[in-house]
Amino acid sequence: MLRRLSKSGCLVLVGALIAAGCAAAPVDEFSIFDGQWVVTELVAGGEIVPLGTSRILLSIDETDAILIGETGCNQILGSFTLIPSEDGGGPAGFTIPGGSSNECLPEDQAIEDALIATMEAVVQWKGSGPDLVFIGPVGQDPTAAPMVLMVLSPAG
């Protein structure tokens, strides 16, 4: 269950993640993950989530394995594992332990809930041009055929 934090709690969580080196992996000479990304495609429960005018930004700090996201209503905080391989993909995983808790419009809250559930279902990533494509099983069945769950494009 996602636990909502105040903005000061979010800052404490970020500091704790940095201090603990949560899920930090060695960084290559250049990073393909670092930077700001926009969620351009999102799938939850096997269904495409209509993003409408929502602009979901994710900032990835590969050095400290920290993820900070702006969903348009709340901020999410978490850690990740993205392991590069020679074929342009590899294992991936996100953990989203908390975020801010602002009142959201129901449609914005539904998108945020879908984003968090989708991120926690991701098991693999691959590059597709400038985009990062995240893959995982559909639903709770880990033996289900994997599918694209989320696509991130460079922000800017």
Describe it for me?
This protein has 156 residues and is an alpha+beta fold. The chain has two helices and ten strands. The N terminus is likely disordered. A hairpin with a 2-residue loop joins β8 and β9. It has one domain: Lipocalin (Beta Barrel), CATH 2.40.128. It has an eight-stranded antiparallel barrel with strand order 2-4-5-6-7-8-9-10. The longest helix is centred in the last third of the chain and has 16 residues.
Work out the radius of gyration.
Answer: 15 Å
Oligomer: single chain
Helix content range:
10-25%
Strand order of the largest sheet: 2-4-5-6-7-8-9-10
Q: How many separate domains?
A: 1
CATH fold topology: Lipocalin
Mean pLDDT level: 79
Q: How large is the share of residues in beta strands?
A: 35-45%
CATH class: Mainly Beta
Q: End-to-end distance, in Å?
A: 32 Å
Flag low-confidence runs: 1-5, 7-30
CATH hierarchy: architecture: Beta Barrel
Q: Give helix and strand order, one letter per element, not per position.
A: EHEEEEEEHEEE
User: CATH superfamily membership, which one?
Assistant: Pilot protein MxiM
Put simply, the count of helices is 2
Q: The biggest beta sheet, please?
A: 8 strands, antiparallel, barrel
